């Protein structure tokens, strides 16, 4: 008899108080009590005990959100996801969570808005009707420096991310050089930033560093280099790039000794890496990519399309005054050869 009540207790340990009282019951009542206890603790035939309820998963749970986004876009483990912490979105009742997806040199940043209960996610951008719709991009591009064309303080700033080995970049560069300043001599300023796609263009980064070495010696000679290297695109290889650049420098207002040292020591690599890092913060992963006062433009845009957008932006900034170039002067490394 003692073994029987111990067995019953082992299966229903959630009511130890009833077990303690069993020993003091008269025998017949004790047997009835044990039978009732067994029936109450064992599930009915064909039924499973209900699992304990767990807390509902929400978008604020990073593993849950990651799994959902991977399923949404069919991203496998080769795509790395970085999920930020929730932050105020500026919209009452909504938090924002930024998600960065990357694979190799390609990356993209997405913004999700999440209500307080975390049951929904909204992919999109929050616009402040009282501010520039491209404020996020403008804030990242606001401190851009480097090779430039046009008028300091112009109401419209263009920033182009380019790759000297990219054939589409060559075509856009030719279009901008032929039309931009001629059409808008005082109203625009163009900045060039490098984004060498090393995985597919083996000499692009070396060319970007060479361009920065030339830029050290003057703005005007840099743009000569810019036009020259795009023209020579089909003839350049990783092996002959240095010799080609040194040949270009002959007869130019360039200190060739300084240029050669700059090329050999990769002196401008940090500058190029900073340009690549800026591109990543903007979610740029293709070239050419052009921004007009923060507005991202497709690489297939024609000059007529760009001209219309620039003209509209010039008119808009006459009253809005919430974008444009704030530089008062050129920013470059000192050189006695610079003009």
Observed structural traits:
339 residues; alpha+beta; Nuclear Transport Factor 2, Chain: A; Glutaredoxin; 2 domains; five-stranded antiparallel beta sheet; five-stranded mixed beta sheet; 12 helices; 42% helix; 15% strand; globular; disordered N terminus
Identify the overall geometry. globular
Helix content: 40-55%
Write down the domain tally. Answer: 2
CATH class of the largest domain: Alpha Beta
Distance between the termini: 107 Å
Main sheet makeup = 5 strands, antiparallel
On the 0-100 scale, what is the average pLDDT?
85
Q: How many extended strands?
A: 10
So how many helices? 12
Estimated share of beta-strand residues: 15-25%
Q: Structural class, judged by helices and strands? A: alpha+beta
CATH structural architecture of the largest domain:
3-Layer(aba) Sandwich
The low-pLDDT segments are: 1-26, 32-42, 328-332
What is the CATH superfamily of the largest domain? Glutaredoxin
CATH topology-level fold name of the largest domain: Glutaredoxin
- The string of secondary-structure elements, in order, is HHHHEEEEEHEEHEHHHHHEEH
Tell me the radius of gyration: 33 Å
């Amino acid at each position: 008899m003692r073994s029987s009540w111990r067995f019953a207790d082992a299966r229903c340990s959630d009511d130890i108080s009833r077990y303690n009282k069993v020993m003091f019951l008269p025998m017949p009542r004790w047997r009835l009590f044990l039978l009732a206890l067994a029936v109450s603790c064992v599930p009915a035939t064909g039924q499973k005990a209900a699992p304990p309820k767990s807390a509902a998963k929400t978008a604020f749970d990073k593993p849950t959100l990651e799994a959902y986004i991977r399923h949404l876009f069919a991203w496998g483990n080769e795509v790395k996801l970085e999920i930020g912490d929730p932050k105020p979105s500026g919209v009452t009742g909504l938090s924002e969570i930024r998600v960065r997806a990357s694979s190799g040199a390609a990356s993209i940043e997405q913004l999700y808005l999440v209500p307080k209960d975390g049951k929904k996610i909204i992919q999109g951008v929050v616009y402040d009707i009282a501010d520039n719709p491209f404020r996020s991009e403008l804030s990242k591009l606001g401190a851009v420096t480097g090779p430039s064309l046009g008028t300091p303080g112009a109401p419209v700033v263009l920033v182009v991310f380019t790759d000297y080995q990219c054939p589409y970049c060559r075509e856009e560069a030719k279009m901008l050089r032929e039309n931009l300043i001629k059409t808008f001599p005082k109203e625009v300023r163009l900045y060039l930033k490098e984004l060498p796609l090393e995985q597919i263009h083996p000499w692009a980064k070396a060319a970007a560093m060479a361009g920065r070495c030339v830029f050290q010696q003057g703005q005007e000679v840099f743009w000569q280099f810019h036009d020259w290297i795009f023209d020579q695109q089909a003839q350049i290889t990783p092996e002959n790039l240095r010799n080609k650049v040194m040949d270009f420098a002959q007869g130019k207002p360039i200190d060739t000794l300084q240029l050669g040292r700059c090329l050999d020591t990769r002196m401008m690599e940090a500058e190029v890496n900073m340009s690549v890092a800026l591109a990543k913060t903007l979610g740029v992963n293709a070239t050419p990519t052009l921004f007009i006062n923060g507005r991202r433009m497709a690489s297939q845009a024609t000059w007529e399309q760009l001209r219309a957008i620039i003209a509209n932006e010039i008119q808009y900034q006459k009253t809005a005054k919430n974008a444009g170039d704030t530089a008062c002067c050129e920013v470059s490394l000192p050189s006695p050869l610079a003009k």
